[in-house]
Specification:
Length: about 450
């Protein structure tokens, strides 16, 4: 998916503004990339539609190119598609929380039982695993071994006892021992079948679980989303756990489950080790799919630092030589804010590399400047000429801000230098003049 999307951006480099025409081909690339990732067609259609609507009309904003902004739009839609926020596990208000795991054979249910216990133990919760897969003695042994591995007790009975009965007894045991979370393993089948669904319904009725999580294999792509939908209709589930994400390079399951089934992915498994289970973060997943973290953070920061309107207004002021101390403060603060992200600065054309010590220096001098500007009258802020002309005013500002007269003079000079520099930067030929300070 990542490489498929890359083609989309490259085609837009050099465009000044995104139009229906010039995004047509990149949108086809995005569409193709999603379909190849095994995202279902209706989801792809809605996605491309949403992105196109936002993209048309996007132009250059403060050095952020339109193609970079498109990356951001696609990212935000991907995050939205996957549910936006992390969907946390829910715990019972009183008594043990019961988590029932369901899913087809071989998807990783038994492994998830142990991984989840390991994960919850780290959150300070005590767990009990319940061996509800009674069809093969090997399944019970597997859970026992894994339980031992993570240091969590396993409740088991014979293969002749009904799973719903074992689950009920397991829950009683947990209540007695004041265990926080009971995780119930169940038997899967190769395909959906009636007896499996009936069994799950019985277990569910017996223990009234807080979470019913369907474990699905990420490598099955949009099939995973279809399964979540079916299980939800049949037994009612609260979410999904996506396993084997480590072997899935396409991302189709992660992208489709929420949109198709309406149920969130709560956790993901990324390997066979016990620590390879983590919450599902839609934003991180989107970032990973796009593989363009640098562009994303650059666009985000630039957007955050200054909105387009602000930039235009500032530009007008500079052109008309009205750039005053209020703008000076705004601009300097914006640059200082940018400075705290030195990595990003390197990406801004014309800014070059900034070292951490330069940033600290800039932040320090910003504080000094702020303290002087703070004690200026509104009139002085708007008409810096007043300060250039009057030593008395500069003296007052120095004493009120606790700075030296020399520092005040420096600040005033800096403002006029900035006017000139910015005018030059904008390519205005006549430039401006720096007034000599009256003594
Ligand atoms: P169950 O039949 O649903 O209980 O599946 P199991 O828990 O027995 O797992 C089946 C196989 O998948 C085992 O060999 C696991 O080690 C493997 N497995 C489970 N989760 C993951 C995962 O996240 N990544 C990888 N690579 N393998 C996994
Ligand atoms: Mg199993």
């Amino acid at each position: 998916l990542t490489s498929g999307l890359e083609a989309a951006w490259t085609k837009l480099k050099g465009e000044d503004v995104l139009t229906k025409e010039n995004i047509a081909e990149p949108m086809r690339d995005i569409r193709r990339a999603l379909l190849e990732a095994d995202v279902s067609l209706p989801v792809v259609r809605r996605f491309v539609q949403a992105v196109s609507e936002q993209a048309v009309g996007v132009g250059l904003i403060r050095g952020v190119r339109p193609d970079q902004q498109l990356v951001k739009i696609v990212n935000d839609e991907l995050v939205k598609l996957m549910g936006g926020e992390v969907s946390d596990l829910v715990f019972a208000k009183s008594g043990p929380t019961v988590i029932l795991l369901a899913g087809l054979q071989g998807v990783g249910k038994t492994t998830v039982c142990a991984k989840l216990a390991f994960y919850l133990k780290k959150l300070g919760k005590s767990c009990l695993l319940v061996a509800g897969d009674v069809y093969r003695p090997a399944a019970i042994d597997q859970l026992s071994i894994l339980g031992e591995q993570v240091g969590v007790p396993v409740y088991k009975e014979g293969t002749d006892v009904k799973p719903s009965q074992i689950a009920r007894n397991g829950l009683e045991e947990a209540k007695k021992k004041k265990i926080d979370v009971v995780i119930v393993d169940t038997a899967g089948r190769l395909q959906i079948d009636k007896s499996m669904m009936e069994e799950l319904k019985e277990v569910k009725k017996a223990v009234n679980p807080t979470e019913v999580l369907l474990v699905v294999d990420a490598m099955t792509g949009q099939e995973a989303a279809a399964l979540v939908t079916t299980f939800n209709i049949e037994i009612g589930i609260t979410g999904a756990i996506l396993t084997k994400l480590d072997g899935d390079s396409r991302g189709g399951a992660a992208l489709s489950v929420r949109e198709v089934s309406g149920k969130p992915i709560k956790l993901v498994g990324r390997g066979e080790r016990m620590e390879d289970l983590e919450p599902f973060y839609p934003d991180r997943m989107a970032g990973r799919i796009l593989g363009m973290g640098d562009v994303l953070s650059f666009v985000e920061k630039a957007q955050e630092v200054m909105k387009q309107e602000d930039a235009e207004e500032l530009q007008k002021k500079i052109m008309s030589a009205k750039f005053d101390f209020n703008d000076f403060l705004k601009q300097t603060r914006a640059v200082a804010k940018m400075g705290s992200m030195s990595r990003v600065i390197g990406m801004i054309p014309g800014m070059g590399k900034v070292t951490p010590s330069q940033i600290r220096e800039a932040e320090k001098s910003l504080k000094i400047m702020e303290s002087m500007i703070n004690v200026m009258t509104d009139e002085e802020r708007e008409k810096p000429e007043l300060l250039a002309e009057s030593p008395t005013r500069r003296k007052r500002i120095a004493s009120e801000s606790g700075k030296t007269e020399q520092q005040v003079s420096q600040l005033v000079a800096q403002l006029f230098q900035m006017r000139v520099r910015m005018k030059n930067l904008l390519g205005v030929m006549e430039g401006g003049s720096i007034p000599a300070l009256n003594n």
